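User: Here's a structure from my thesis project, written as C-alpha cells. My advisor, Dr. K., wants to see whether a designed sequence matches the one we expressed. Can you design one independently, without my sequence as a hint?
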C-alpha cells in the first residue's frame, strides 16, 4: 500500500529578506499538491483532516499568506463583501457585523468592515476605500437617511443592501424592523401598568427609524381607551453614551421625573441608567424603564431590564441572503423586508396604579402576542 510522505519532523521559519512564500512551497513542505493546499486554505472543498492539518502546519511554518489580489485576477471575481456601519463602538452594529461574518464564512466569502463614525463625510471616504478593493457587493447601515454614498455604489455597479436605517423611498434592497410596532409594544406595556407620564429618550430624530419608533409610541397613547392622557414627551439624547447621560440628567433635574422612560436605542438605555443612578432615582421603585435591543447585560443587571428585542441575527441573515441573490443575477425591483420585534418583560417595569379599563390590559397582551414571533 502506498503511503503519503510524512512532513519533516523539524519546522524552520521561512528565511528573511526574500519574496513572498508561494503555494508551491507550502505544497512541497506538506507533501501534497497545490490543489490540496488551495482547497484547505480557501475552504472551497473538503480535505482529509490529516492532510488539512499538514497543510495548515506547513503554511504556518513558512508564514504563507494567501494573495487575494492574485486569486481575484485568476478567478475573475472577488469573494469579498464590504460592510459599512455608522460605528464600531455600538454593540448593535457589531452584532450585525458578526452575523454577516458567520453567513460569509459559510459560503467562503471574506468581509471587510469600516466605520463612518456617524459622520457623512467620513462615510464617503470609507466607502471609496472599501470600493477600491473591488468587492462583489456591499452591505451598509447608513449614517443618515439620505445616504448620498448610494450614488457612489451605484456608479461602481456593485450590488448592495441597506440595513436598519432605511428611509421611506424604495431606492435599494433593504432589511429593517417594524420600528413603529416595536416601540408600540413598549408603550402598550407601560400603559397597561398604569403609567401616564412617560418620557421617550430618542437618539436623533434626524433618523427615520427613530422617528418611526416615536410615531409608534404616539399611536399607542392616542389609541388608549382612557381619556385625557398626554402624549409622551420626547427628548433627543444623542448617539453616544456620554451625551445621553448628560442630556437626560439635565432634563430630569429641571423637569422632575416621569413615571416611566422608554429608551429607543441600547446606548440610550445605558445612558438613562447612568443618569438615574447619578440622581439617586431607583428603577423600578421611582421610575420604570423599557430599553431597546436586548443584550446579556440587560438580563444580568439588577434589576433586569425590560427591553424590545430586535431580531439581529435574522437581520444579518436576510441581508446576506438578499445580497447573494443579487450576486447570482436575481433581477426585479428593490425588496424591502420589515421584521417584527418582541418585548422581553423583566423587573425594570412595574405597575403604579390599577388599570382603569380592563380592555386596555387585554389590548396590551394582544398586541404583544401578535407581534412576538413564534
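Assistant: Designed independently from the structure alone:
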Amino acid at each position: 500500500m502506498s503511503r503519503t510522505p510524512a512532513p519533516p519532523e523539524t519546522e524552520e521559519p521561512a528565511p528573511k529578506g526574500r519574496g513572498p512564500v508561494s503555494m508551491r512551497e507550502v505544497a512541497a513542505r506538506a507533501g501534497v499538491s497545490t490543489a490540496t493546499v488551495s482547497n484547505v486554505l480557501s475552504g472551497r472543498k473538503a480535505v482529509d483532516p490529516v492532510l488539512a492539518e499538514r497543510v495548515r502546519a506547513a503554511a504556518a511554518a513558512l508564514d504563507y499568506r494567501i494573495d487575494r489580489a492574485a486569486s481575484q485576477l485568476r478567478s475573475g471575481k472577488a469573494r469579498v463583501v464590504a460592510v459599512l456601519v455608522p460605528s464600531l463602538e455600538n454593540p448593535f452594529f457589531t452584532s450585525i457585523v458578526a452575523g454577516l461574518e458567520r453567513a460569509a464564512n459559510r459560503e467562503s466569502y471574506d468581509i471587510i468592515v469600516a466605520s463612518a463614525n456617524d459622520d457623512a463625510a467620513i462615510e464617503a471616504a470609507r466607502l471609496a476605500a472599501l470600493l477600491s478593493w473591488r468587492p462583489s457587493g456591499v452591505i451598509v447601515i447608513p449614517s443618515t437617511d439620505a445616504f448620498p454614498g448610494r450614488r457612489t455604489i451605484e456608479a461602481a455597479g456593485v450590488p448592495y443592501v441597506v440595513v436598519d436605517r432605511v428611509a421611506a423611498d424604495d431606492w435599494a434592497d433593504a432589511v429593517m424592523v417594524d420600528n413603529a410596532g416595536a416601540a408600540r409594544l413598549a408603550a402598550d406595556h407601560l400603559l397597561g401598568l398604569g403609567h401616564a407620564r412617560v418620557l421617550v429618550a430618542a437618539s436623533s430624530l434626524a433618523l427615520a427609524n427613530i422617528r418611526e419608533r416615536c410615531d409608534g409610541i404616539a399611536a399607542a397613547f392616542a389609541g388608549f381607551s382612557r381619556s385625557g392622557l398626554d402624549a409622551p414627551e420626547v427628548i433627543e439624547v444623542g448617539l453616544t453614551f456620554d451625551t445621553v447621560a448628560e442630556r437626560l440628567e439635565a432634563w430630569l433635574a429641571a423637569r422632575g421625573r416621569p413615571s416611566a422612560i422608554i429608551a429607543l436605542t441600547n446606548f440610550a438605555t445605558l445612558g438613562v441608567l447612568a443618569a438615574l443612578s447619578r440622581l439617586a432615582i431607583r428603577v423600578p421603585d421611582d421610575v420604570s424603564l423599557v430599553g431597546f435591543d436586548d443584550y446579556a447585560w440587560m438580563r444580568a443587571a439588577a434589576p433586569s431590564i425590560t427591553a424590545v428585542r430586535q431580531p439581529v441575527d435574522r437581520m444579518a441573515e436576510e441581508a446576506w441572503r438578499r445580497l447573494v441573490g443579487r450576486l447570482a443575477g436575481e433581477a426585479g425591483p428593490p425588496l424591502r423586508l420589515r421584521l417584527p420585534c418582541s418585548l422581553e418583560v423583566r423587573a425594570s417595569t412595574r405597575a403604579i396604579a390599577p388599570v382603569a379599563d380592563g380592555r386596555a390590559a387585554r389590548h396590551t397582551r394582544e398586541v404583544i402576542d401578535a407581534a412576538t414571533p413564534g
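When you compare it with your expressed construct, this may help: The radius of gyration is 26 Å.
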